[in-house]
Amino acid sequence: MREIERRLGVARSTVSLWVREIELTDHQREELQARGASARTRGRRIYYRARRRMFQDEGRELARKGEPPHAAGCMLFWAEGTRHRNIAQFTNSDPAMMALFMHFLRHYFALPDDAVSVACNLFADHEERQRQIEDFWLGTVDLPRSRMTKTMVNKYSHNSKRTRKNKLPYGTCRLTVHKTQVVQHLYGAIQEYGGFDRPEWLD
Q1: Cβ-proximal residues to 73 (8 Å cutoff; 6+ apart), any chain
Q2: Angstrom distance (rounded) from CA 181 to CA 85
Q3: What are phi and psi of 22, to 5 degrees?
Q4: Using one digit for the tens of pLDDT, what is the confidence trace for 97-153?
Q5: Local structure of 81: helix, strand or coil
Q6: Whole-angstrom Cα distance, residue 173 to residue 81?
Q7: Domain definitions of the chain by residue range
Q8: What number of CA atoms fall less than 13 Å from residue 138's CA on the CB side?
């Protein structure tokens, strides 16, 4: 009815009178339902893409101010972050770097503790100290134990001859933020700092 109304430029009440005697087949009803669902999906896609662009624009605007702590956090993410549409992950073995990135997140996004999760990746020689290492990383990023997710412990293969032993005394730590605003802000800022455009980072 909406399509007839739009194409012919007549009132909805008029269209209703014209079609009230028409019986739709099951196939026609299914087609109409599918078209409606498709239109809703397109609408959601357009809405969320516009939100991502808005967050990228916010990142670009802040980048243009040239604040060194903001630039540092964005460059750390560009170098060491894992890029997804709605999730920002940052992994490293350097405690100072992890602390700096966490400070960046808190300062520029006012993230509460429950917006961030922590995970450790350890080797077999860390296993006896797992709890101690987890506490070390939680202290480094100043988060409670409730934000620690499952720690992965990698066993040595027969071919490694334990050559990695003691190479990373605390393994690696990963921070994860499930927040579209943070991810897209970072994408926009990185593009502004770098002087390039990556349209695919919007999709």
Answers
A1: 100, 101, 104, 105, 108
A2: 10
A3: -85, 130
A4: 999 999 999 999 999 999 999 999 998 888 889 999 999 999 999 999 999 998 988
A5: strand
A6: 12
A7: 2-46, 57-202
A8: 16
Residue 159: pLDDT band by 50, 70, 90 thresholds? low
How many other C-beta atoms are found inside a 10 Å radius of the C-beta of residue 182? 22
Amino acid at 88: A
Tokens of 187: 């994408």
198's tokens: 């990556």
Q: Residue 178 — φ and ψ, nearest 5°?
A: -95, 80
Cα(61)–Cα(32) distance, rounded to whole angstroms? 44
> CB–CB of 139/102 below 8 Å?
no
User: What is the C-alpha to C-alpha distance for residues 122 and 189, in angstroms, rounded to an integer?
Assistant: 32
Instruction: Output the pLDDT for position 128.
Output: 87
Q: Measure the N-to-C terminal CA separation of the chain; round to a whole number of Å.
A: 34
Over its C-alpha atoms, the chain yields an Rg (Å, rounded) of 26
Q: Give the C-alpha distances (Å, rounded to integers) separating 117 from 17, 31, 56, 178.
A: 59, 44, 23, 9
Q: Which amino acid is at 73?
A: G
How many angstroms separate the CA atoms of 201 and 63, rounded?
A: 17
Question: Which residue pairs, CB below 8 angstroms and at least 24 apart, start in 129-132?
Answer: none
* Cα dihedral value 69, 75, 77, 78, nearest 10: 160
